[in-house]
Amino acid sequence: MNDERRLSYIQLYLASNQTKSEFEKENGLGRDCISKWLRTFAIEDKTTSVTLPPPMSTLQTENKSEDPEEEIRLLKLALKKKELELKQATMARDAYKKMIEIAETKYAIPIRKNSGAK
Q1: Which helix or strand (DSSP H or E) is residue 72 part of?
Q2: CA 19, 4, 77: angle at the middle one, nearest 5?
Q3: Are 44 and 84 contacting, i.e. CB atoms less than 8 angstroms apart?
Q4: What would the pLDDT profile of 14-63 be if each residue is shown by its tens digit?
Q5: Which end of the chain has a smaller Cβ tally under 10 Å, C or N?
């Protein structure tokens, strides 16, 4: 099964209100396929997904007498979203570094050149 098809199954699962096991049985997938694919593509599961708060500009224009607990909740959600973005960026960086290392080893070409050296 190609990545495109796996991603389409993940999108269907995330849009549904089914559990992973129910979705896998209904679609004839193996046990824990969805979990593996979510990890592979670094996609957050819907049970732990982050509900995005309104943009900060909207928060600032709202009434300042907003409940402090609600503000804390919104800030925690924003922090969780940023942590997820950082995790994905870190994984992308590590994959890029590994790809360069493999290419340098396989083709014996220095990809990371020191352009200032003479």
Answers
A1: helix 68-107
A2: 50
A3: yes
A4: 888 888 889 999 999 988 888 888 888 888 887 554 555 556 555 555 55
A5: C
Yes or no: say if 51 and 77 are a contact pair by the CB < 8 Å rule: yes
For 63-90, letters b (16+ CB in 10 Å) and e give eeeeeeeeeeebeeebebbeebeeeeee
Please tell me whether residue 26 adopts helix, strand or coil conformation.
helix
- If DSSP codes are grouped into helix, strand and coil, which group holds residue 109? coil
Question: What is the distance in angstroms between the CA of the first residue and the CA of the last residue of the chain?
Answer: 49
Provide the 8-state DSSP code for 64: T
Residue type, position 117, single letter? A
User: Taking the CA of residue 21 as centre, how many other CA atoms within 13 Å lie in the half-sphere pointing to its CB?
Assistant: 0
Q: Angle at which helices 3-15 and 33-40 pack, to 10 degrees?
A: 110
Q: Pick the closest to residue 17 from 44, 38, 46, 59 (CA basis).
A: 46
Name the one residue in this structure whose structure tokens are 């080893």: 105
Q: How many residues does the chain have?
A: 118
